[in-house]
Amino acid sequence: MAEPFVAQPSVAEPFSVRVEVRGYETDVQGHLNQAVYLQYAEHARWALLRHTGIDQSDLLARRVGPVVLETNIRYLRELRAGDTVDVECVFEWGEGKTFRVRQAIRKTDGTLSAEITAVGGVLDLERRKLLADPRKAFEELAKDPAPLGL
User: Fold this and answer.
1) Claim: this prediction has a pTM higher than 0.85
2) How far apart are alpha carbons 100 and 7 in whole angstroms?
3) Rounded to whole angstroms, how far apart are CA atoms 72 and 61?
4) Following DSSP, what letter does each residue of 57-109 receive, concatenated?
5) Where are the domains positioned within the chain?
6) Which of 130, 119, 143 is nearest to 6 (CA)?
7) What superfamily does domain 15-145 belong to in CATH?
8) pLDDT tens readout for residues 64-73
9) Which of 147, 82, 75 shows the shortest CA–CA distance to 114?
10) Element holding 121 (H helix, E strand)
11) What 8-state DSSP symbol labels residue 4?
């Protein structure tokens, strides 16, 4: 179980990636399938890490990797094939082994379609334990840690 999270004010502006909803991502009602929201969120988180200069190869070389410990999704407005959305991503840092990632999926007209909150950590791939200070790992790996709120 994740330890209690105490958020520090985030100093970063939301990072955003644009995605077009594809027909094969929809369910029988023509809505974006619920699992695809998670894929969009994951895509935005990795895009943000790459934006700061962190690649998967950098993480593997250091023998660490980000992990999601829990996720909550609030579905607010439907998305359909052909809709274009911006997937926002903000990291919030607390004390201890975990951090939060707050995300919003918005249509380009500003309509909020979903809010996603995830609790994450950074896993030591050798010991299979969370690092005591995930901020430090990201600060050391990022060429520009500011978009991560660091």
Assistant:
1) yes
2) 8
3) 31
4) HHHHHHTEEEEEEEEEEEE-S--BTT-EEEEEEEEEE-SSS-EEEEEEEEETT
5) 15-145
6) 119
7) Hotdog Thioesterase (3.10.129.10)
8) 999 999 999 9
9) 75
10) strand 112-124
11) P
Q: How far apart are the first and last CA of the chain?
A: 25
Rounded CA gap, 89 and 92, in Å? 10
Beta-bridge partner residues of 92: 100
Residue type, 12: A
Whether the CA torsion 146, 45, 8, 4 is positive or negative: it is negative
Q: What is the pLDDT of residues 63-100, one digit of tens each?
A: 999 999 999 999 999 999 999 999 999 999 999 999 99
Write the secondary structure of 31-65 as one string of H (helix), E (strand) and C (coil): EECHHHHHHHHHHHHHHHHHHCCCCHHHHHHHCEE
49's tokens: 């890490």
d(CA 140, CA 137): 5
Residue given tokens 């190869």 in the structure block = 57
Rg from Cα positions in the chain: 16
Question: Which amino acid makes up residue 10?
Answer: S
Cα–Cα distance measured from residue 102 to residue 90, given in angstroms and rounded to the nearest whole number: 5
The angle subtended at Cα 37 by Cα 144 and Cα 62, nearest 5°, is 35
Structure tokens at 116: 């996603």
